[in-house]
Amino acid sequence: MINPLPNTHTQVVYQRPKSLTTAVTHYCPGCTHGVSQRLVAEVLDEMGLREKAIGVASVGCSVFAYNYFDVDFVEAAHGRAPAMATGIKRVFPDRTVFTYQGDGDLASIGMAEVMHAAARGENITIIFINNAIYGMTGGQMAPTTLPGMKTTSSPLGRDIEMTGMPIRMAELLSKMDGSSFVVRRSLHDATNIRKAKKAIRTAFEVQQQGLGFSLVELLSTCPTNWDLTPNEALSFVEEKMIPYFELGDYKVADAVKALKL
Amino acid sequence: MAKELLKGNNAIAEAAIRAGVEAYFGYPITPQTELLEHMAARMPALGRTFVQAESEVAAINMVYGAACTGKRVMTTSSSPGVSLMMEGLSYIAGTEVPMVLVNVMRGGPGLGNIAPSQADYHQMVHGGGHGDYHPIVLAPASVQEAIDITVLAFDLAEKYRTIAVVLADGSIGQMMEPAELPPMAELKKHLPHWAVTGEPGRARRLLTSIYLNPDDEEVTNMRLLNRWMSIRENEVRWKEYFLEDAEYVVVGFGTAGRVALSAVRAARAEGIKVGLFRPITLSPFPEAQLKEIAAVSEGMLVVEMNAGQMLDDVKLATEGLLPVEFYGRLGGVVPFPDEILGEIKRLAAGPIPNQNGHARQRWLERLALIKERD
Ligand SMILES: Cc1ncc(C[n+]2csc(CCOP(=O)(O)OP(=O)(O)O)c2C)c(N)n1
Ligand code: SF4
């Protein structure tokens, strides 16, 4: 085949990050798990961390994240990823250790592990996917499910009289003295995806500099269990989730500000 | 190295350090807390990892993470804490990474008490966590043996990529005895081929316990089972006392075995031909050895600080070849040698009265009499 353009005119602007394998993901159409994993992979590539990173997958739809990242990985028990990451980081302090956890995993069964990892100022990075539902088990109520939102275990809509209000993890974790960088971003459009990537990059920089606990909460979609089309799901994030889970920087420690990233 | 006066818990901790443990994760609980405290004082000073976790759930999952790096890792606890670790232990078994757990057992169920007990035999020996797996379980009966077994536990765990448990009880943990510690071993220089280490220049590594396809899970289960069969073949350990000419045999592990030895000596002094068989590996259980002994003995007495948990395994191993009687104390009560001596005499006095029912039933009836007498 003849390349119609001279080589000097071709420029690769988009390709698979080296930190991703060629495996086809099992995520549903319109699910933003794939987007966030790509962002993490791009950051690992850009920072040259692929060969010194150790990922900790959690229990949820992202349980097979390790099939998609071309880096060393372990797979934790439900909610325990921050503890497992602690074990790894303490024996290999110079490796880049990150967890990738859903909201059921992190905010429900794993509440103690994440709070104490933050309290210890554990020098790990957590990518926290908040899709307001338990995706993997088929759409049950999560601690992040919005008031009135229908799920298979709140069929009449989440009743806050009985179940309380959704937990805002970024706000909660920002109160821990050991947290250095805790922010919330969204994956519902290109602008926000770019901002999310920047936050992920900062989180890994924080770890690289040994500044302590970093967490990026990403508002994410679950069209399948929300019973919405992919586009409707993106609108749901923007119109329903963001008003409750406001985007923002909840904790940026002075040492992180000084990084001037 | 010379003998020193050592407390069991400290001795176990120091033995682990000298065996080259590089990371320790734990949570305070009596009667094992000195173990954690010893680690807190020594590990950071040696440049090794010590973390007091927020719970035993977190501690075992920290161990899980650290074990995936191929380094020597351990946690220690006592009964209620070990219950909380069962989830992590099952994952560790399923992921085939080595680790050492020390359980300094106390009275239960529930919060129970802090007195010595052997009531976690079933939980430790027959699994505990979900799924099909067998840990190696070793039971020391003295401070010296606790030291030796702790070192051995690390070697066995690594050799078979398995969980090795040191199953002690509160009295082993708390007692002081002269004992000799091993010299300081060098830390491991080479990590195993499966270790997740985040290193450049090689294909990525993955450690997991999930096998969604049942055929793959079956292959994994088979691999675990084959390894277990080879452990059964090669790693059975026990101690015998006065068995050469024994007509009657007492079987007991750990502290119960030690108290029984005093009773056996007293019975020998009275001319009763009795010996002691003390399993050191409760898992793998010395089945073949017990069967051999059963074939040439008149009767057996199992002594435990529980309601006859090992008794079931002894009965299985001896295949009805001889009468097996039981004596136990519960709830953190340690039997006196005299109590066991009485049981030995009863066994040696000839045909056991009221052979009907189970050994446990007969023991309960006798215990009721004893209790009334008190
Ligand atoms: C101890 C334990 N309890 C329950 C489960 C079942 N389970 C698997 S995934 C999951 C929920 C995951 O939801 P989330 O963390 O929100 O992730 P998502 O699937 O939405 O990405 C549950 C409850 C389990 N695997 N282990
Ligand atoms: S169930 Fe929901 S979270 Fe899971 S892959 Fe599908 S869309 Fe994504």
Beta-strand content of chain B: 15-25%
CATH fold type of the largest domain in chain B: Rossmann fold
Oligomer: heterodimer
> Which bin fits the share of residues in helices of chain A?
25-40%
Structure in words:
The complex is a heterodimer of chains A (about 260) and B (about 375). Chain A has a single domain (about 35-260), classed as Rossmann fold. Chain A contains 11 helices and 9 strands. In chain A, the strands form 2 sheets. Chain A has a 7-stranded mixed sheet, with helices on both faces. A two-stranded antiparallel sheet of chain A has the order 5-6. By secondary structure, chain A is α/β, with parallel strands linked by helices. With about 375 residues, chain B is of the alpha/beta class. Chain B folds into 2 domains: about 5-235, 3-Layer(aba) Sandwich (Rossmann fold), CATH 3.40.50; about 240-374, Rossmann fold, CATH 3.40.50.920. In chain B, the strands form 3 sheets. Chain B has a 7-stranded mixed sheet with strand order 3-2-4-5-7-6-13, with helices on both faces. In chain B, strands 10-12-11-14-15 form a 5-stranded mixed sheet, with helices on both faces. In chain B, helix 1 (about 10-20) crosses helix 2, helix 3 runs parallel beside helix 5 and helix 10 crosses helix 13 (about 335-350). The model of chain B has no long low-confidence stretch (mean pLDDT about 95). The interface of A and B includes residues 63, 77 and 97 of A. The site of iron/sulfur cluster has 12 residues of chain A, from helix 9. Iron/sulfur cluster binds near residues 33, 223 and 224 of chain A.
